[in-house]
Each structure stands twice: as C-alpha cells, then as structure tokens.
Amino acid sequence: MAYQWSWRSFDDVSTDGVSTYLHNMFAGAGWSVLTALLGASLALAIGVAVGLMRVSERPLYRTLGAIYVEIFRDIPLLVQMFLWYFVFPELIPHRAGAWLKSLEYGPFYTTVVSLGLYTAARVAEQTRSAIASLPKGQMMASQALGLTRGDAYRKVVLPQAFRMMLPPLTSEMVNLMKNTSVGMTIGLLELTARARDMQESAFRVFEAFSAATLGYVAINLMIIGAFRYLERRPRLKLKNRTTPSAKEALS
Q1: CA–CA separation, 29 and 181 (whole Å)
Q2: 48: which residues sit within 8 A by CB, 6+ positions away?
Q3: CB atoms within 10 A of CB 249
Q4: How confident is the model at residue 248 (pLDDT cuts 50, 70, 90)?
Q5: For this UniProt entry, which segments traverse the membrane (predicted)?
Q6: Residue 52 lies in a domain
Q7: What proportion of the chain, given as a percentage, has pLDDT over 70?
C-alpha cells in the first residue's frame, strides 16, 4: 500500500491541544537556533582561551590546555550531556543539586553547556594550529615595538589567526547546529524532538522529518553564507607583513 502524503497535517492541532504541528516545528527550530547561538558563543570564548593556553610559554598552562582538549574531545557528546544532566546534580551538595534539577529550562541550559564545552575543545585545537602557522617574527616584532605579549596577541596575532580559522570554523559551527538535536535525549524540545512528536502522534513520519531536514538545511546554509561573507572580506597579507602588522597595532 502506497504512503499517502498529506502536508495539510501540519495544520492539525498537536497533542498539547492548542498549537498546530506547523507552529511546533517553527518553535522547535527557534530553540535549535538559540541553543546553537549560545553554545557557539561559549565554545568560541572557552576555545580561544584554551587555544592560547596550548601555545603558552608556561608548561603548566600548556598541560592544563592539553588536558581540557583530551577530556572534552575524547568523550562522546551524548555521554557528556548525560553526565551533566543526570550525574553532576547528584555529585554536588544536595541543595545545589536540587536547585539544578528544579530549573524550568534545565534541558536547554544543559544542552548549551554541553555543546559549548565539547565544541570548545575542537576550537582550541583550531586556534592553536592557526597561531602556530603564523610567522614567528610577528610576536618578536610586536614586542620590539613596545607591545606587551597580551596586546600582541590581541592586536596582531589573533586577528590573523581568526581569519585562517574561518574555513574549519565554518564546518564546526555547522556541526554544532546539527548537534543540537542531541538535546532531544534529555528533553529539549528542539526541531528533531518536534518532528518526532509529530511522527508519534500524527503518524506522519515522512512529512515530519522532511520538514525537519529542510529546516536544518536552511539554517546551515545561512551559517555557511555568513562565514563565506567573512572569508570574502579583504584578507590580511601575512607574507612580508611582520613589522607593518605590529606598527598598525600601535596606531
């Protein structure tokens, strides 16, 4: 018996008795985008910091950075999410654990933190590789012109490293967006969870997951487009710009 497609099923009222399935799909997409945005912000902040630790002159910082990367990169995201959501509240003091478990948007917060920490390990390695690929004279010339090591990183090294990171960072952000679907396993009502709800209640598996597929493709195309725009902007000329880069940073 052939399957009878019915896109009109999106106009049916969902199991909550109020919203339509179409409304729920858009709501799920909104939660996916918000989760990805916050997770990406956390991943970039922590990842760049850990990446700088990985290239630090201090052995302690390099060791701590390496430990972070190996721990969060080697453990599957799903396992990390379960650890943060189910195990961590049981390990901390009872009152704090009870407060965490009572949070209204607990699955959302847990998904953001898990995605951020997991992706940060990968961003850290991209940061380390980008900095290591820059000419060694960049830092020496910057310090010779009076910049502190921190200012040299902030004004000379990191801007160039970030531009070199854009291609791999594009793929990382696309993967992060797709990984928001793992939040479904702890109760986050994101796009995949909404599609699954429609499949189980309305028995419209093809329509539900076709819509979810189109949603992910559309969102990720926008992410790719945004990073392509950044890549098309005038590139920094790394060759023969060791001293001029530092001079521009002082101006």
Answers
A1: 10
A2: 123, 124, 127, 158
A3: 19
A4: low
A5: 29-53, 65-87, 208-230
A6: yes
A7: 92
Question: What is the structure's pLDDT at 1?
Answer: 58
Angle between the N-to-C axes of helices 205-232 and 21-54, in degrees from 0 to 180, rounded to the nearest 10: 40
Sign of CA dihedral 108, 109, 112, 117: negative
Closest CA to 54 of 123, 116, 114: 123
Q: Is there a contact between 9 and 21 (Cβ–Cβ < 8 Å)?
A: yes
Structure tokens at 22: 């179409």
Residue 7: is it exposed, middle or buried by C-beta count within 10 angstroms (0-12/13-18/19+)? exposed
Residue-range definition of the domain harbouring residue 155: 16-231
Does residue 5 fall inside a structural domain?
no
Residue 6: phi and psi, rounded to 5, are -150, 90
Q: Which two tokens stand for residue 162?
A: 């970030």
In a domain, 224, yes or no: yes
Question: Can you read off the two tokens belonging to residue 189?
Answer: 């009502």
**Cβ(25)–Cβ(105) below 8 Å:** no
